[in-house]
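Re: weekly structure request thread

Next one in the queue (122 aa):
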Amino acid sequence: MKKLLVALCASTFALVGVAAFADDSTMKPLTKMDTQEARAAREAAKAKWAKMTPEEQAATKKAAAAKNRDSWTAIEQVSSGIDYDAKMGSKDAAASKTGPAPAKGTLNTPEADKVLKQQKGQ
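Done, posted below.
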């Protein structure tokens, strides 16, 4: 009975501790001045966008997409610790698709295993 009581107290203490650490009050709401500045910046950006030609808008979107793509690949490379080569990956994928294929109707049979071993050179 004492063990049960100790376990209950320990679990209660752990749950209360987790709840206390989970309270993240570091986010502060924007002040009225910050909100007004943000709105003014957004309106200025909208006005600048409206003045652009469709070609300029397309070029801006393309540049933003490329920048986003570059940043994600850099983040992924840093987090994985592996340098990925797309050309080598496509070669590996193509090589993995080519391989000996069993004759039709002989799949999962001893004859098919013999044929595959002969094709592999074993």
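The chain has a mean pLDDT of 75. Residues 107 and 113 are 8 Å apart (CA to CA).
Next request, please.
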